[in-house]
Specification:
about 500 residues, alpha/beta, Rossmann fold, FAD/NAD(P)-binding domain, 2 domains, six-stranded parallel β-sheet, globular, binds flavin-adenine dinucleotide, binds NADP nicotinamide-adenine-dinucleotide phosphate
Length: about 500
């Protein structure tokens, strides 16, 4: 209600200030070159002939989680990179890699020089469990593990220990949990044909992990993954799957829940099918996947080495309907169980980080917004729309949704930008036009920031593909900052 009034007021004021700067370029800066950033750039360029879009990213490489999140054995998902590359090749679009918001440039600087700033820098940290022992060695977030096997330059030194144990526990049952479990369980003869980072391939080849527990605090009817990804892990070669059949018995309330969610229904049906088919198969399996439902982490247990993890103590849960949301939530029963393991991957969701000058909701880990327009609160807790500042992607909605979800998300944010533009809220109100890219280059030069252009990225791309060809892989990723920058800045 308040926000609706605010928007109406905003439009009334704006229509007065509408004047024509229609022939001047509209300088747009998008921070973050993941799907949300690229879809926003694409839509802005299409919708506004006078838009000039600069895309900034802290990495020397573009494409966000399409490069550093999507699993190496999902090459078809990465094809979207071709579409993003076409956007970057537009003469009205420029990419500036190796430019970090918060250290190389700050938000007030960008807002000073651009008519529109869209923050799209994703979610680069993790939700924490907040249970004792979380700091023990051998416990990693799935994000770290994924960045490691995908060759993210911040994680090439990670060296997860896959050789001192035969058991890993993955906490969480979303698609990321399935990705990391599959990478642990899949044979390296299959992985070696993918773009997995070489250091990860070597380590996985020497891995002694044979058993993976996939632990969910709720039941099979609430599993957070999708059917395609579940089917894929159930189909991993030479894998014995264990599902405790009594866990598959569902209540009438859950039956109702399943009727309203096709995704959950398909996942549940697959689990039921798998429980019976795996029982019938007399498999001499090399590896084992164990689904543990209705268990939430209570604390981590040390091994003989008091600094290393040796197990997880899980509390059994049951489901209770949350009065407010009507959702089935997990509540502890006071009954506990211990699982021994030498590796834990916490896959309970990503979280965005705040940057100076940007309103941020610490609890939800998102930038408060109305349809992508950034919203701040003044000292009297009054809501204000931040002129010319927008948000998109995981930073706007929280860390859920597939690549395509960001397309709709970008459409919404761009529609808000265009509406504000038509209402004279952007650029028109300022007497002196903003300088955009010209000034950005001066700032970067004055701070000695060695930014990477899109053609710098193309050099990295060519080098990686060349190295990949030699190893029969689609690409061999460069995994250190030094190598990436050296290749990007190499004069032909
Ligand atoms: C492990 C994993 C696997 C996934 N697999 C799939 C899949 O197979 N299929 C699918 O459809 N979806 C998949 N997804 C979901 C999909 O990747 C996301 O929906 C999407 O990437 C979110 O887009 P985004 O642009 O908001 O964030 P991101 O893709 O994270 O992009 C954010 C960008 O901002 C940059 N950045 C961060 N901080 C700064 C800063 N301070 N300054 C400048 N730049 C900064 C980052 O380097 C990054 O390039 C996966 C997600 C994860 C985590
Ligand atoms: N192939 C693909 O398409 C693909 C691959 C990877 C990722 N993605 C997408 O990327 C997004 C992020 O995936 P994600 O797996 O990180 O997130 P997610 O789908 O939100 O799953 C998070 C998991 O963590 C659990 N969890 C959260 N907090 C917990 C806590 N405190 N204790 C125990 N468990 C907890 C959740 O259980 P509850 O359900 O009980 O909350 C859920 O099982 C998703 O939209 C996903 O579909 C897609």
């Amino acid at each position: 209600m308040m926000i609706g009034l605010l928007l109406r007021g905003w439009k009334q004021i704006s229509s007065k200030s509408f004047c024509s700067l229609n022939h001047k370029p509209l300088h747009v800066c998008v921070v973050g070159s993941g799907p949300a950033g690229f879809y926003t750039a694409e839509k802005m360029l299409k919708a506004q002939e006078r838009a000039q879009v600069d895309i900034l990213d802290r990495l020397p490489t573009p494409f966000g989680l399409v490069r550093s999140g999507v699993a190496p054995d999902h090459p078809e998902t990465k094809i979207v990179i071709n579409q993003f590359s076409r956007v970057a090749s537009s003469e009205r679009c420029s990419f500036f890699g190796n430019v970090s918001l918060g250290s190389d440039v700050n938000l007030p600087e960008l807002r000073d020089i651009y008519d529109v700033v869209v923050v799209a820098y994703g979610a680069e940290t993790d939700r924490s469990l907040g249970v004792p022992g979380e700091d023990l060695m051998g416990i990693h977030s799935a994000r770290e593990f994924v960045w490691w096997y995908n060759g993210h330059p911040d994680y090439h030194n990670m060296t997860p220990d896959l050789k001192s144990t035969d058991t890993a526990v993955v906490l969480g049952q979303g698609n990321v949990a399935l990705d990391v479990a599959r990478i642990l369980l899949r044979s390296t003869s299959e992985l070696q044909k993918t773009d997995i980072a070489e250091h990860a391939l070597v380590s996985l080849h020497e891995s002694t992990i044979r058993k993976v527990y996939l632990v969910g605090r709720r039941g099979p009817a609430q599993m957070a993954c999708t059917a395609k990804e579940l089917r894929e892990i159930l189909g991993v070669k030479d894998l014995q799957v264990h599902i405790n059949e009594p866990d598959l018995v569902i209540s009438p309330a859950e039956e109702e829940e399943l009727k309203s969610s096709r995704i959950h229904r398909r996942v549940y049906d697959l689990l039921c099918k798998s429980a019976t088919s795996h029982q019938q198969r007399d498999l001499v399996a090399q590896r084992e996947l164990n689904f543990k439902f209705f268990r939430k982490p209570h604390r981590f247990l040390p091994s003989e080495d008091p600094l290393r993890v040796g197990g997880v103590c899980l509390e059994k849960t049951c489901l209770k309907e949350n009065g407010l949301s009507g959702k089935q939530v997990a509540v502890g029963t006071g009954e506990f169980e211990e699982l021994s393991c030498g590796l834990v991957l916490k896959s309970i969701g990503y979280k965005s980080l705040p940057v100076h000058g940007l309103p941020f909701d610490d609890y939800k880990g998102v930038v408060p917004n109305v349809k992508g327009r950034v919203l701040s609160r003044d000292q009297e807790e009054q809501a204000n729309l931040e002129k010319g500042l927008y948000v998109v992607g995981w930073l706007k909605r929280g860390p859920t949704g597939i690549i395509g979800t960001n397309l709709y998300c970008a459409e919404e944010t761009v529609a808000s930008i265009l509406e504000d533009l038509n209402n004279g809220l952007i650029a028109a109100a300022s007497t002196s036009p903003k300088p955009g890219r010209k000034q950005l280059l001066q700032i970067l030069e004055s701070k000695n920031v060695k930014y990477v252009t899109f053609s710098g990225w193309e050099k990295i791309d060519a080098k990686e593909k060349f190295e990949g060809q030699l190893r029969n892989k689609p690409r061999e990723k460069l995994t250190t900052w030094d190598e990436l920058l050296k290749v990007a800045h190499h004069e032909r």
